[in-house]
Amino acid sequence: MLYLLKRKKPEDLEVIIKADRHFSLEERLITFWEYKEHQDPYGLIERLKEDLEERIRYIDLRKAYSFKPSKLLKTMAFLTLILLALSLIISPPKNLISAFNPTENKRAYNEQKNSLLEKKAHLSDNILEGEGVKKQQVSQEDFNKEKVESFETPKSLEEFLSQWDFDKNNTKFKESQKENQKVEDKKEESTAQKEGTEKSSIGTSNMPSLGSVASGISPSMEEGSSSQGEKEGGQTAGTENMPIQSQQERMTQAPITGGKVVDKKESSGSLPGTEERNTKLGEKESERKVFSGEKVSVPSPQEEEKGKSYLFQAPTLTGERKTIGGSVSISPQYQEESPVPSRILPQEFQDILKIYFSQ
Amino acid sequence: MALSLEDFTDVIGKIRREIGRVIVGYDEIIDLILISLFSGGHVLLEGVPGIGKTLIVKTLSEIIGLKFSRVQFTPDLMPADITGTNIILEDEEGRKHFKFQEGPIFANIILADEINRATPKTQSALLEAMQEGNVTSGGKVYPLPKPFFVLATQNPIEMEGTYPLPEAELDRFFFKLILTYPGKEELLEIIERTTNIEMPTVSKVADGKTIEELKKIVRSVPVSQVVKDYAVRIILATHPETNFATEKVKKYVKYGASPRGAQALILGAKALSLFEGRSNVSFKDIRNVVFSALRHRIILSFEGEAEGISPDEILEDILEKVPEV
Fold it and tell me: Does A10 lie at the interface with B, CB-CB under 8 angstroms?
C-alpha cells in the first residue's frame, strides 16, 4: 500500500520514451501519443496506429518502467533504519550483550555446567540410595593420599631415571659408559680366570670383541655400532642363546659370562681393584664429591683493575736499543731482568703446596 | 487525386527498380537523391570523373518523365547563359519589343556539370532559382517549372581553374553526396551492361504531378517533439559559440549549420522514414541523414583546415556526444 501511495509517479512522456526504447518501437509510440488527435489526408497517423498496435499487442508496457521509489519513500526508509540502529545501541537485547561479552558468557556457562553436574549427582545419589548403597564420606585429603599411593613408585634409581626422557646424546653416552664398564669387567674376569684355572679357552678371554673395543674407544659412536658391539661381545663369550636382558637387569646384576653369574669372590685374586664390591653397581647411589671453597680466578677482575698480579712471574729480558748518531744499531744489547721479589699466592694454594711438600 | 502512403511506397519501388536497370550499385546514393527530390531539395554530387554522375541524373529524368537540361559550367559561362535573357524581336507590324528567352534552367531536372568551374557570378545565377524556384530578368519574375531539381556535380581532384562554391550557394543544396569508385562486382556488372549492342533502357513510371503529390506526403509525416529537439540540438552543436558545441567543434569549426540545415535534417528524415516503410520519424532517421545534410554546411576554421579535419569527423563527434533525449 505504501509502495502504491509513495511510488514516484512518472510523467507520461517519460514512460512513453522509455517504452519506445525498451521495445524498439522507433519512436512510434511517442509520435502517436503526440499526433493522436491530428487529422491528415494521407492516412499516415492511421497507418502509424495500426503499425503500433501490431507491435505492442504481445508486450507488457509496464515492464519498460522499473520501480523507482520517491524521495519521500527513500527518506522514510532511511529514518526507519536510523531509528532501528539507535534503539539497538541504546537498549540492546540481553542475548546481544552476552554475544559481545565473552567473560560474562563464560561465567554463565560455568554456572549452568555446575548446576547440571549437581543435578546429575543428586540423581545418581537418589538411585544409589534406592539400591541400598551406603554413602561414604571421604575427605579430600584421604582421597588424595589414596590416589598418590596407588601410583607406582620406582624400585631403583635406574628405573626411576629410565622413566625420564633424556636427550639422545646423553643416553648414548651413558650406554657407552655401561658398555665400557662391561668390557672392563669382562677383562678382569678373564684375567682372573686365566690366573686362577689356566684352563679356560684363550679365544674367549684374550680376544676382546671388536664391538667392545670400538665402543670403548669411541663412546660417542652411534647406537647401531654399540648394539653391534654388544652382540659380538656376547658371541665371543659364547652366549648365543642368552636372552636379551633389560637395561635394569644389566645394571643391577653382575657381568654374565657363558650364561652364568661369575662368582667374583672365588675367582678374584689379590690383584688390586678386583675385590668384590660392598655394593653392586647401581644398587646404591655413589657418594658425590662436592667442591666447596672460594673460587680463585687468576688474574681476578678486581686485581686486574688494581694492577696485574700473577702466581709466578717468569724472568723476562728487557731490551735497550742504543743509537749511534741517530741511526738505529743493528745488534741491540739486552740486560737480564731480576725476578720480581713479591709473589702473590692465595692462601688456599699456599696451604695446598705446604701439604704437598710436607708429604 | 490524393495519393496515399501505399502509392508513395509503390512509386518509390518502381523508380528504384528502373534506375537499377541502368545504374549499377550506388543504392544509397540513389535513395538519397530521391529523398532530396521528394523533399524539394537539390543535390551536390562530388566525385571523380567517370563514375556515372551524369548518367544517374539523366536516367532519373527519363524515369519520372520530366524535362531535363544539362549545363556544362565553364569559366566563360555567363549568368544569362543559364537563366536566359531578353532579346529584341520584331513583330509583323515592324515594332520591336523585348522577349525573354528562357535559359536551360527552365527545366525540371537540371544537371549543373562541374559547377565549380564557373565563376562565382555565374554560380550565383542559380541562387534565386534554387531557393525561390523562379528567375528574375528585366524586372520580371519568371517561375520555374515544378518540380525543379538541380543536380550539381563537382570534381574534387582537379582544383586548378576552379572556383569553390560560396557558402550561400552551398547552403542551398539540400544534400551533398560523395560518390566513390564502384567495387569489383559492380564494375563487372557495369562492363556487362554497357559493352553490348543493346543498351539498357528505362520506362517512365511517374510524372511531375505525382512527384509534387508525393512531396506533400513527405511533408505530412509526423515528427515527435523529442525527435525535433534532437535535430535542433545537433544543429546547435555545430555552432562553436553555443553551449551545445563539443570540444572538437569549438576547436575546428568556424561556422556551423544554418536553419536550412535543420530543415534538411527533418525533411530528409521524413522522406527516409517513408522509404523505410514507416510513417513517423525516428532518431535513427535523423542520424542517417546528418552527414548528407550537414557536411557542406560546416565551415572549418584555420586550425581545422591545417590539421586536415573533415566535416564528417566533426559530425561523428557530435553524434557521439549529443544524447537523443
Answer: no
CA of B8: which chain A residue's CA is closest?
A42
Provide the ipTM. 0.82
- C-alpha separations of B45 from A175, B40, B77, B296, B310 in Å: 114, 16, 20, 11, 17
Structure-block grid coordinates of residue A72: 519521500
> Does any CB of chain A come closer than 8 Å to the CB of residue B1?
no
Beta strands A317-320 and A260-261 are unpaired
Q: State the Cα torsion B233-B239-B244-B245 to the nearest 10°.
A: 130
C-beta atoms of B220 and A40 within 8 A = yes
Q: For residue range B132-184, what is the model confidence (pLDDT) as tens digits?
A: 888 988 888 999 998 899 999 888 877 777 888 888 888 999 999 998 888 88
Q: Are B253 and B300 in contact (CB under 8 A)?
A: yes
Structural contact between residues B167 and B36, judged by C-beta atoms closer than 8 angstroms: no
| Helices (H), ranges, A241-346 | 247-252, 264-267, 301-306
> Of B82, B64, B63, B85, which is closest to residue B73 (Cα–Cα)?
B82
The interaxial angle of helices A223-236 and A168-196, nearest 10 deg, is: 20
Longest CA pairwise span in chain A (Å): 155
Whether the CB of A15 is below 8 Å from some CB of chain B: the reply is: no
Residue with the larger pLDDT of the pair B151 and A241: B151
Q: Kindly report the CA angle at B270 between B35 and B311, in degrees rounded to 5?
A: 70
A42–B5 C-beta distance less than 8 A: yes
Q: Which of A34, A38, A45 sits opposite B225 (nearest CB)?
A: A34
Coil/strand/helix, residue A350: helix
What is the per-residue pLDDT across A92-118, written as a single tens digit (0 to 9) for each?
Answer: 666 666 666 777 778 888 888 888 988
CA distance B192 to A156: 124
Residue B82 is which amino acid? I
Contact B236, B258 (CB under 8 A): no
Q: How many CA atoms lie within 13 A of B52 on its CB side?
A: 22
The model carries a pTM of: 0.57
Is residue B37's pLDDT more than 50?
yes
Residue B284 and residue A44: Cβ atoms within 8 Å? no
Closest Cβ opposite residue B284 in set A26, A41, A47? A26
Burial of A204 (0-12, 13-18, 19+ CB in 10 A): middle
- Between residues 231 and 250 of chain B, which touch chain A (CB distance below 8 Å)? none
Alpha helices for chain A (secondary structure H): 2-6, 12-22, 28-35, 44-56, 71-90, 94-100, 102-131, 140-150, 157-162, 168-196, 202-205, 210-217, 223-236, 247-252, 264-267, 301-306, 347-358
